[in-house]
Amino acid sequence: MNELEDIVCAPDDRLKTECAPIDEITDDVRALADRMLRDMYAADGCGLAAPQVGELVQLVVIDVDWTEGKKNPYVLINPQIVVADGQERESGEGCLSFPGIQVQVRRPSHVIVRAKNLDGDLMQYEAQDNLMAICLQHEIDHLHGVTMVDHLRPGERMRTMREYQDALAHGARPGDVEVED
Ligand code: NI
After folding, report:
1. Does some domain include residue 62?
2. Distance CA 112, CA 126 (A)
3. Which helix (H) or strand (E) holds 32?
4. Per-residue pLDDT tens over the stretch 161-180
5. Looking at 88, 126, 139, 156, which residue is catalytic?
């Protein structure tokens, strides 16, 4: 399947669903992680969550270094935010499930996340004031049916969704941040 066509775009109920924890790291889980990394790199994204490829399980892939041209992928299984604090900061976010738009989202600037990796080891990730801190929160939100537009105030969300429909009508595809008129 074409990688970009594999990505679920809003609106879709699968993006609004609480995802199930993964009990056992099977070949299917490893294959899903591979598929998600392939899709994420094909779309030039820095993160992708399982529901974005239609799989309602708690798996996230992240690579915040990819934009600098080198691959450094993280696979997070059943990730949990154990600390989210620090001064809140607003930054521009995009999402492969919302092609063609970017929104300003406020989030805590410091997070600590615990997750299993593909070997079943419990890992801890700490990030502050960087893309990783944003990406961890954005992707883990997806596992709980929350997308970036859910962080907007109602009026702003309506305006954003109109902008998004317009971007889709102009042919935006996953990975596009803005589409030329
Ligand atoms: Ni997203």
Report:
1. yes
2. 4
3. helix 27-42
4. 999 999 999 999 999 986 55
5. 139
CA angle, 120 then 30 then 47, to 5°: 90
CATH number where 56 lies:
3.90.45.10
Q: Is residue 2 part of a domain?
A: no
Residue 3 belongs to a domain: no
The whole domain housing 43 covers 13-169
- Calculate how far, in angstroms, residue 140's C-alpha sits from the geometric centre of ligand 1: 9
Q: What is the pLDDT of residues 83-112, one digit of tens each?
A: 999 999 999 999 999 999 999 999 999 999
180 flagged as catalytic: no
Specify if 132 maps to a domain: yes
CA of 139 to the centre of ligand 1 (A): 6
